[in-house]
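Structure ticket #2291
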Amino acid sequence: MSYFSLVNLVLFFAVLPCIFFYHPFIMTVVLCVWVYLFRKYVVWDIFMLRISCKMAFWLFLVSELIVFLTIIFCCFWYIKGSSLAISYPLGIPILETYLLIMSSFFISAFHSNLASVNGRIFVYLSLVCSLLFIFFAVDEFLNSVVNSLCDPYYASCFMLVGLHLSHVILGSFGLYELLGFRLSSFVRWKNNMLIVYWHFVDYIWLLVYLVVYIVHL
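Resolution: structure written out below.
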């Protein structure tokens, strides 16, 4: 079994039951353990994948999608009786959506101009958008009218948005790594994987935005 599977099994069998039975302290401790395991065994493996491990990369994305869908199920499971979103949908969240859409556009422009000297400009623009997203997401957490202790539904929503935020932070490091792009077969393949990962993060946000914010409109 790969490290990808082991780390995600920790989240699936430890954190998710804490959501259902609503033990915030235990959930926080286990989530910290999961973050440690993810950083120790997964992060650098993602960025140092060999060509023979392409399937592992795609399996990693599939496993991440399953985790997101599971937490989304928790949001729908506990939604009854919750009349407020964690933030006004047409405020900071819609701004975050535009930032990620622009970031996705810039990274696509970079992908189309790999051999161009000016291609790195698009990476810088995409990185700026991602950093602004992180800033607004943290500001949203700090100024939310609710918190994860109010209700299991809000705990699920904050975990979903927070999990996506952790992927944006990880993806931002990947964008920074793209700035060192050189024309070689291995590096080109590696950068393609980073670009695919960033698009994955963008698409997941559209789903998160729909579930966490738009449902309450």
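Closing remark: The two ends are 43 Å apart (CA to CA).
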